[in-house]
Every structure is written in C-alpha cells, then in structure tokens.
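Appendix B, Record 12. Input sequence as logged:
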Amino acid sequence: MIARLMPKREAAGFTLIELLIYVSLMVVVVTLVGAILITALTGQKDITASSSGSTGGQLVTQNINNNVRSATAIHVTPISSTRELLQVSTPGRGATASPTCVALYFTTDDGGAVFTMSSSTTIATPTGSNPSGWTKLAEGLVKSSRPGAPSTMLTANATMTTSVSYEFAISNGSGKPQLFASTVTSRQNITASGSASCA
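Logged structural output:
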C-alpha cells in the first residue's frame, strides 16, 4: 500500500556520484589534451629555432663561398679572440669597372653574429658587437666546440691567400649548435700584389 502512495521516480537527471565521475573523467581528458598540446608547441618552437639557425648558417656559408670563389684578393684578419674579419676583392663588372670590396665580420660577443658589407672602397675594420652600416646575416654565432677544431673561425692558407677555411657553429637557443665547416678556393688568378686592394 505504501508503494502505491509513493510516485515512481523517473530518471530525469544525474546523481551526485555520476556527476563526480563525469567531472573526474573530464579532468583526466583535459589534462591529457593539454599535455599533448604543450608538447607539440614546445616541439614546434625547437624546430623553428633549429630551422632559423640552419638558415642563418647557410646564408653565411653561401656568402663566403660566392665571394671567395670570385675573389681576386683575400685577406683574413683576427681582430681579437672573439672577432674576425674576412675581406675579399671581387672583380668589377664591365670594361672599366673597379673591384668591389666585400667584408664579413664574425663576432661571438653579445650572443654572436655575422655581418657583411660591400663597398667600392676599402672597408674599415669594425668595432663592437653591432657595427653601424653593416648588414646582419645571422645571429647565435659560436666557435666550434668540436674536438680538434681550430682556435679561429677563419683560416687562410699561409703563403698566397687563395683559399679560406671556416668552421663555426650557429646556436639555435636550445639543443646542440649546428656546425658549418668547409674550405673555399678562389677561381680567379690571385697575385701577391692584388692581396692589398681591399684590406
């Protein structure tokens, strides 16, 4: 009789236990999705930094290779233990064109960078870690830490400078710096008298 007096309960909502289970499962799912998203964003940041370092290093090596291969005079100057200068004289275009001086300035000061400048006249040795009038090619320059690496980033052959060896690394902010190393030889006829035309 009592059962007849009490109306049947319809399942119209959630019980407290069901609600707690649902909230707990949502917390687990949101935590997992957040962890995956953070990992993906961190990975993307590392890849972007690595790609930027690689692009900067390739730009510097391409600049060295192109200018040294066409150089009629090459001069490497170690300015200090953290700064080096590569100057090349490239032939002018046309019958009466004068040679063009191109310089690359390597500095590991203040996070490191490589700068370039070209001129129809002699280029003065730059000072500081951010010289005015110079174009920055790459940043994050560091000396190579490879075992047996030379103490300088640039090395010219000892007799008549017809080739330049370089070895440097570009730090991408995280992980291991990317190493760039090669030797480039001029394709022009370099004479001893031409070595001072730009330096």
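The chain has two helices and nine strands.
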